[in-house]
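Entry for the shared binder. Reason: the reviewer on the internal report wants the predicted structure included alongside the sequence.
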Amino acid sequence: MRIDKVDGLGIHDSRIYWNNNEGIYITQNAKNVTITDSRINGNSRGSSGSKPGIYSHPSAQNVLISGNTIGQADGFGNSQSYGIQVGTGVSKGLLINGNMFTGNVSGSIQNGATGSNVLVNNNLTVTP
């Protein structure tokens, strides 16, 4: 799912799975994006371990990712590189909080965002 040129999008209580690339890709043109209480599993099928469950461009504005289960679960294997990957650059508002990561190939979160508008906390990594 590619999120581009949007101002105000909520993904809630959803299942995002079995995509060839990222489960969710947030571009630099996105604003006010909320992803909560969803399950993001089994993505990066095209090349296992090469794409994350969620990718966010650091210039996307006001992105909230909270309360999700991301990784190996619901019968899907360990195929996503990271649960969440944020590109390198100055953030324009990013909150990653309260997610559960279950077996991603390279790790839970790769955060390249910088600046004072970034908060990543209270996330949990468990072994599936």
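Summary line for the report: The CA atoms of residues 37 and 47 lie 26 Å apart.
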